[in-house]
Amino acid sequence: MSANLYHDGVDILHGQRRLWSFHGGIHPPQHKHESTNLPVIRAKLPERLILPLHQHIGEPAEPIVQVGDKVLKGQMIGRAQEFLSAPVHASTSGTVVDIGDYAVPHPSGLNATCIVIEPDGEDRGLEHPRVGDYLQLAPSALRNLIRDAGIVGLGGAGFPSYIKLNPGKLDGIDTLILNGIECEPYITCDDMLMREYPREIIAGLRVMQHALQARVCVIAIEDNKPEAFRALHDAALHEAGIDVILCPTVYPQGGEKQLIRVITGKEVPANGLAIHIGIVCHNVATALAVHRAVQDGQPLVSRYVTVTGGGVSQPRNLDVAFGTPVRDLIIQCGGDPAAVKRLVMGGPMMGYALHSDAVPVIKTTNCIIAATEADIVPPRPVMPCIRCGACADACPVMLLPQQLYWYAHTNDLDKVQEYNLFDCIECGCCSYVCPSNIPLVQYYRYAKGAIWIKEREHEQADIARQRHEFRLDRLAREKAEREARRRLKKASLAKNQDNTPHTEEAVDND
Ligand code: SF4
Ligand code: SF4
Predict the structure, then answer these.
(1) From CA 423, how far away is CA 304, in angstroms rounded?
(2) Confidence check: pLDDT of 15 > 80
(3) Which of 43, 285, 377, 426 is the most exposed, having the fewest neighbouring CB atoms within 10 Å of its CB?
(4) pTM here?
């Protein structure tokens, strides 16, 4: 399949299924082959596993173990607190040695609460019940099982999967898309997973189909992953209602809205969700996790992680237990942590720099890029915008990035919202093509942060105003009540005086 069939705005026929295109997109150097030459191996367990209670979108889990407790692999150690939350499980057997604040993977570099486990080296697992025939289970029971297994979107977002497996008020959804696009440079963990577990991924897809009562299923893979495509294509050969589609490689095709457009030609409405148009997308690794939870009773305790970049001599994919420090992975891939000058979690387009190599791998960690001094390209000088429009041509959301930049730059937070700042998926296509080297996405992130702070301040000001008004009301009411009591007392005293005979008068009358 060749990418030159892929023309902006032109429908094309790609195999049996018609594919559409989305506006913009770019073709950055792939750097994928570096990490696919070696087979995937299991990463060694570290001396201590650091398991953050917040590895997903939503509320953090709440610890249900104490320091000194012995735990088994797969045992729940953090319970989901709210609807939008996910439990956390021990990723090996051992002893809980601490519950406290540790560095976690987050752009802020802040610490968060973690449960620390010292492995006992036995890797003993907890026996979980197996479902057997999941078709006998009601979709809601399946969703509960997936929730209790701690499964979240493994494509990087970390949204609790059981919520996205609920068709809501619909009887069922039309199309379930399994996203095997993996469009960011350097990342190859889904590629390797698809090559190695095609049947299990399809089995997980069937479970998801049952939970969603989906009519058709599509597995989408970019054409820079021919081995993965072949593996899934062959595994699905005799499966009814599953299309395995090869899509021309373009970034950011793995974005949910972009992929839905390519596969179905439909647009997810602004401020709307895919399910509103009868479509749900899940990642291929999430499907595998669902299969393991249902078939083997395994909660989510590990994942494939790409470890790559000039800072490691053997870039590859590792099967990593959650909680393993990044530093250990660099050493296992032949790197010297002291020589690594920059660490990125995720890809070069949408990932973020890590503040420390002590942070652990969590559910959303798909890739670690270790860069040495030699890999770091000195930043090019930023020049004024020449209004060339290249950023608008590249934007997959059809925004006007130069206008967004202008208003973010001048701190005009109302205007930047008028230009739909919050539709920006921070894909970085605009910055990538900008001839003036303007770090556009950084301006958008800054503006989003400033708007959130302003909204919080407004909310707090509203709360403070309501409290102040309430206090004034209360003081006025208390004053009125005091006045009423005083008047009542005065009236009562006056009445008593009227009813009591005057002493001198009484004496006189006697
Ligand atoms: S690509 Fe850069 S220089 Fe060109 S319009 Fe956009 S912001 Fe301005
Ligand atoms: S980062 Fe935002 S504005 Fe820039 S191309 Fe991507 S979606 Fe468009």
Answers:
(1) 30
(2) no
(3) 377
(4) 0.87
